[in-house]
Amino acid sequence: VINNREMTINASIGVTAAHCLYDNQYWYTKMFFCAGFNDGNCVKNVAILKAAVVMRDDKYYYDYGLIKFDNSSNLQNKIGYLDWDNNPGNNVEVTIFGYSMNSELQCAKNGNVLCMWHGISTQIGSFRHVPVDTGSGSSGGPWIKLFDSKKKQGWLVGSVSSSGPGS
């Protein structure tokens, strides 16, 4: 959930991978965000009211998607929030989250348990990379700099788009 005053007043905007919202032909419908998902349980299940992706030549561009939640959901009070830094520099310490099925991450890898990795991300051209395979199921997971695990706050600098060595 993004809580950047330049983008939103009430922290009702989220970021995910565009391919989680649109498959180059159809928009997914009846989408929900399962806030705080862990081992099959949600802290709060919130309807996604609208979704948007940047398209170029009928394909999503940079694989970012924005989602708008119901304003009354108060997600930031339940799961925390992030500010957004779209120019974090070259070598940036990040914490990455996702629900991996087959990664190099040290976690259950069953798609139901939140996996985490902490290390340095690098900028190569216009893309940001990490030296681990985050695995399928991690798409849309946040890349957060200065992550405060107690407050569940930090700066969003990216989102998992693809998996593979050096993704």
UniProtKB/TrEMBL annotation:
One of its GO terms (molecular function) is serine-type endopeptidase activity. It comes from the Eukaryota. GO terms for biological process: proteolysis. SUPFAM superfamilies: Trypsin-like serine proteases. InterPro entries: Peptidase_S1_PA (IPR009003), Peptidase_S1_PA_chymotrypsin (IPR043504), TRYPSIN_HIS (IPR018114). This is 9860_t:CDS:1. It comes from Dentiscutata erythropus. The lineage of its organism: Eukaryota, Fungi, Fungi incertae sedis, Mucoromycota, Glomeromycotina.
